[in-house]
Write a structure and sequence with these properties.
Layout lengths: L1 E8 L2 E10 L2 E4 H29 L9 H22 L3 H11 L12 H25 L1 H11 L14 H18 L3 H17 L8 H7 L6 H5 L6 H4 L9 H5 L24 H4 L2 H6 L6
């Protein structure tokens, strides 16, 4: 890896970092943009597939105006994407490449097969995000940020995208630290980010899955019926089923709950307070939520 001269503006010569890959010189931006485009393509495809599934086979009747919720929830994820792009232009992939260049992290010290390093990275990052989620529920200051995600009065694919910008920034920093300590391979980070986005959309889906299939899927994966319980307004149920991808963690750490007390069709989504739509739907209200005592 090194610097390649790109332009001469007066007396200033600009350089950009490059990498030799398969005998070709590729700039860091080129290497980062390709997986970013792949992630976006898969994200949009997953969003479309799940949106159609929700229309054809919904699990529950929605209680709020769908168009209003979707406009505001999607506006929030768009705002978050812009903020993260400005603050962290290379995102997690660029950070993994930087760590690899300087041989930071455990995996860069071990001579492991690439496939094993990828598996270790996927499991480790999944566990890190799991504990991050638990901590955001248990620490009052962090809960102020995370409750934006839980004040949604309905539960569908856009709920999985609804987070306060400050939580998104903190989550990115947590992933940076995890990547640095582990020495996560960049390809594994790309795969993880795709899984993270896809799982967030899938496990928040308002979709019907037959009980027998749901039961089998839960042996390994977090299903919508499993995660919906986490969005119950009943505190004991909110404090359960924290996983986003692998269902093992909740079982292992004693946080697993099989079914909601009131049943999936009758359980109340959201928090006990606030319940007014004007406090739970508009993006301007969501941005203010952490700074308002509830």
């Amino acid at each position: 890896m090194g610097d390649v001269e790109t332009a001469n503006h007066g007396s200033v010569v600009k350089t950009v970092p490059y990498v030799q890959l398969n005998g070709e010189t590729r700039t860091m931006h080129e290497l980062i943009d390709t997986p970013s485009q792949l992630r976006l393509t898969i994200f949009l495809a997953m969003l479309l597939i799940m949106a159609v599934w929700e229309i054809l086979a919904p699990r529950r009747l929605l209680t709020q105006n769908k168009a209003s919720r979707w406009i505001n929830n999607l506006a929030l994820i768009t705002l978050n994407s812009i903020i993260l792009r400005i603050l962290f232009p290379t995102a997690t992939i660029g950070f993994a490449m930087y760590a690899a260049e300087h041989e930071f992290g455990l995996l860069h010290k071990l001579a492991l097969p690439e496939w094993l390093s990828i598996v270790i990275t996927l499991v480790f990052l999944d566990l890190v995000i799991y504990f991050q989620h638990v901590i955001f529920h248990k620490v009052p200051l962090l809960w102020r940020l995370h409750r934006v995600h839980h004040t949604d009065l309905d539960f569908d694919i856009t709920t999985g995208l609804r987070f306060h910008p400050l939580e998104m920034i903190l989550s990115m920093l947590v992933k940076f630290l995890a990547i640095l300590l582990l020495g996560a391979p960049s390809i594994a980070v790309v795969i993880f980010e795709i899984v993270l986005n896809s799982a967030a959309i899938f496990n928040h889906g308002n979709i019907y899955i037959p009980k027998a299939i749901d039961r089998m899927l839960r042996l390994l994966l977090v299903t919508p019926d499993m995660h919906r319980i986490h969005h119950s307004c009943r505190q004991p149920e909110t404090d359960s089923n924290y996983g986003f991808s692998i269902s093992l963690w909740d079982r292992l750490f004693g946080n697993y709950r099989d079914q909601p007390e009131a049943g999936h069709n009758k359980m109340m989504i959201g928090l006990q307070n606030p319940r007014k739509p004007e406090l739970c739907i508009p993006i301007q209200a969501l941005l203010k939520t952490p700074f308002i005592s509830q």
